Amino acid sequence: MNKIVIDRNKETPIYLQLYSQLKRFIENGSLPPGYKLPTIRSMAKELGVNIITVVNAYRLLEENGYVYTRVGSGTYVCEGIQRDRDLIEDIELSEHREIPVKKGTINFASSSLNPELFPVDEFAELINRVLKRDRGYAFEYQDSRGYKPLRESILKFVRLYGIETGVENIQVISGGQQGIDVVSKALINFGDTIVVERPTYSWALASFQSRGADILEVNLNKDGIDIEDLEDKLKKFKPKFIYVMPNFHNPTGILYSDEKKEKLVGLAEKYETYLLEDDFAIELSFTETDVFPLKAFDKYDRVIYLKSFSKVHMPGLRLGFIIAPEKLVSSFLKAKYVTDLTTSGLMQRAFDLYLRENIWKKHIEEVKGVMRERFEKMKEGLTQLKSYFEFDIPKGGFYYWVKLKDNWKAVDFYQKCLERGLLVVPGDMFFGIKKEDNFLRLSFASCDVQEIEKGIEILRQVLSEGQNENEMYLPII
């Protein structure tokens, strides 16, 4: 086993140092699945620590799905910690249309709208107006914080969602993924703890892990994150921040209750941490009840609000913004500056007019109409297949999150669907630690109604054929 180093001069408790190092050895494969860890007594003797220290470290590993205990035998590394990275990376890239799918393939994976839904004509006119008005100045480097008139337009935009802030707290970014990267660079030091929802956005996990963060997962209930479990982890670990998607969560589609949003903000204040709110689809609400961001409940300046315009407007814009708590404004500015200096000036100036003149409202209403129709069609189809899997009906966004029955593994299901011309996303990729291999995320973002009908039929074929195979080859024991 790799050498474990305990530093008694560190403020970090020794049991957390031990837990963190063992976790890394498991994640990087140094301790493979099935490996038997040293006994508690021998590990304590080897490191010169108290037995209780090792007990606490092993218990944390077990709670987070890294190891399991066999009574009378010992502690073993769990299966399924390592993933098939090539497969997962291909799925992630195809989700963002960075890998073209075979012609004719029905895409239930992509989170991007069909290009015909983009407000191209409106933007062409806006870009021409900017070029005539600003000439060469449109191509100058902008302030790293962003084009000030755009930040003023964003200020008016967020007030519609109950957010009160100042222009100086708004940082323009080149899309939501850059926003996550900027926050990671500004706040995460190697070995810091970050709390995420379970499941969560896979590219956010990758960003946090690339900075050397220790990831703790907290389960989601139907109305949002498990508050009791979260508070327990806040007491123990003092995380740098909590990453959440409270409105139409990716991948589950969950919408947090207002009560839970208020409790979450209260916990952040109580335990002196921050909440990173990732808002990519609040505009796509299919409920009559008003939906507000977590930031609208932020009485204590504890919420870092990250908003992308890419998914609902046009992916190629690569535009979004961060609303930073007062204490973090300069940190985010520095992180943005070293990332890419500034976001496209031409796009910022055009998008300023797009917001300022309320052109976005017409686009959103058109998109909501189309997406609502697709949402209903997928709901209708999945309901007909409910004997094969479990799912809840979301109240907005892009996704259905389904749990497969009959011992299906999501990656196997993904491959069988792909053979028949349907691309889905296996749920494994949304779990950071202990994988759940029987979930699928199905998106209706980029398929028309006819394609959704065809996709549902492929799901039915794969499910029925798989069920027959399971029945034929069920061993008699």
Automatic annotation (TrEMBL):
Domain of life of the organism encoding this protein: Bacteria
Record's keyword terms, sorted: Aminotransferase, DNA-binding, Pyridoxal phosphate, Transcription, Transcription regulation, Transferase
Alphabetized InterPro entries for the sequence: Aminotransferase_I/II_large, HTH_trans_reg/aminotransferase, PyrdxlP-dep_Trfase, PyrdxlP-dep_Trfase_major, PyrdxlP-dep_Trfase_small, Tscrpt_reg_HTH_GntR, WH-like_DNA-bd_sf, WH_DNA-bd_sf
Homology family: In the C-terminal section; belongs to the class-I pyridoxal-phosphate-dependent aminotransferase family.
Transmembrane stretches, start-end: none
Pfam families: Aminotran_1_2 (PF00155), GntR (PF00392)
GO molecular function list: DNA binding; DNA-binding transcription factor activity; pyridoxal phosphate binding; transaminase activity
Protein name as it appears in the record: PLP-dependent aminotransferase family protein
Keyword Nucleotidyltransferase: no
Record-annotated HTH gntR-type domain positions: 12-80
Organism expressing this protein natively: Caldanaerobacter subterraneus
